[in-house]
């Protein structure tokens, strides 16, 4: 959207999901697509609408704002997920994990504070993106963990409806002139390559959120931001401020602590499930009437 001047974020998202659908159809033809669970998803249309808004508004946010402001907006997704999961599923997290999350969010805020370029419309788009993004991650995690959906099967179920909603969003959020874009080999290759990377990103993200939780998936995304800041400084001689480097290191430390606490909770839950439940044996009549049994035995011996 910057170098190629491709200013059509919703259409770019539409291309991503169209490539997803083509690849998933190929997997299904080759019998590589996992079988969907017999229980159908009653709110697949609503889920697809939320996916369309979450992905489309994310790219629109990147169009009107800087990457730093986009990462700052992602910070608000984490408490939104925690609050929504508590309201809907009564799911709580420990106080230690809350402290670790606070360190991660504060570190990300410090690391990206030097790149806060936005305008009023871009800020409104970012605010409108937060709730659909949080709900999208919660539904992905819940459907895979509770309803036994696999990531590819869920993508195959929801992608066609998501494409329909993206088509409906294009006239509202995309500027006109997409057909007049210079569709030469270089630009077309860049867009298609990005679409393939988008498929891998969505697949890996679905695997991660299905294996962990919605909150852990957001923390993983913040970890990616820290890797970009630190890796750019170490490998590509970028020069972020000292405060930004300290913030990235603090966020990496908070992410490590949060991951360690999550692994301990998972191991504790697994061990508690594996422990056999001991059912007390019923008392026999012989043990209850032990004295009577001994009397009868002694009498029979005398006889």
Automatic annotation (TrEMBL):
Q: Where is this region: Disordered?
A: 268-303
GO CC terms in record: membrane
Q: How does it sit in the membrane?
A: Multi-pass membrane protein
Transmembrane domains' residue ranges? 6-27, 39-57, 98-114, 120-140, 152-170, 190-211, 218-236
Q: Which Pfam families match?
A: TPT
Q: Domain Sugar phosphate transporter: where?
A: 6-258
Ordered alphabetically, the record's keywords are: Membrane, Transmembrane, Transmembrane helix
Keyword field contains Transmembrane helix: yes
Q: Where in the cell is it found?
A: Membrane
Give residue spans, biased composition: Polar residues. Answer: 268-277, 287-303
PANTHER family for the chain: SOLUTE CARRIER FAMILY 35
UniProt protein name: Sugar phosphate transporter domain-containing protein
Taxonomic classification: Eukaryota, Viridiplantae, Streptophyta, Embryophyta, Tracheophyta
